[in-house]
């Protein structure tokens, strides 16, 4: 080589070492920032909840959500009038209007939970003569 000429490959080795150092530094910084992000995720996740943990009324978007089964019910005129009275009575017990479908299902469930009352009605209708 001529005097004063630099070795063209010498810079490559230095820059390679610098690049390695930068890459290692970037990697450490990246890991640290990832750790901070993970920590932030842990903090923010503590305030989250599962939608399924909410009461039935609050976790749905529409009144028919989570109601896959359709029960068509034919009722007598007196039963229809009683149902309307019962729904009005339920509306009065809450500070808001109760959906008709919710009221009907609640009344249906109440009847199943009080099977003796259902038995009495069936006897009035002539069952067990």
Please provide a brief summary of the model.
The chain is built from five helices and no strands.
Summarize the biggest pleated sheet: none
Oligomeric state: single chain
Report the helical percentage: 55-70%
Estimated share of beta-strand residues? under 5%
Instruction: Compute the separation of the termini in Å.
Output: 122 Å
Q: Count the strands?
A: 0
- Stretches where pLDDT is under 50 for at least 5 consecutive residues are 36-44
Task: Name the average pLDDT.
Answer: 75
Radius of gyration: 36 Å
How many helices? The count is 5
Which series of helices and strands comes N to C?
Answer: HHHHH
Outline: elongated
Q: Which SSEs are present, and which pair or pack?
A:
Layout lengths: L7 H38 L10 H4 L17 H17 L6 H14 L1 H10 L5
Structure, explained:
The structure is a single chain. With 129 residues, the protein is mainly α. The chain has five helices and no strands. Helix 3 packs across helix 4. About 7% of the residues have low confidence.
What distinguishing features does this structure have?
about 130 residues, 5 helices, mainly alpha
């Amino acid at each position: 080589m001529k005097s004063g000429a630099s070795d063209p490959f010498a810079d490559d080795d230095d820059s390679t070492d610098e690049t390695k150092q930068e890459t290692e530094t970037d990697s450490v910084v990246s890991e640290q920032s990832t750790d901070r992000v993970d920590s932030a995720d842990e903090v923010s996740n503590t305030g989250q909840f599962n939608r399924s943990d909410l009461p039935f009324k609050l976790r749905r978007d529409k009144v028919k959500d989570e109601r896959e089964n359709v029960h068509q019910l034919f009722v007598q005129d007196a039963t229809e009038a009683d149902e309307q009275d019962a729904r009005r009575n339920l509306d009065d017990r809450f500070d808001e209007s109760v959906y008709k479908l919710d009221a009907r299902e609640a009344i249906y469930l109440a009847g199943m939970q009080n099977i003796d009352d259902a038995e009495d009605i069936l006897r009035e209708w002539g069952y067990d003569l």
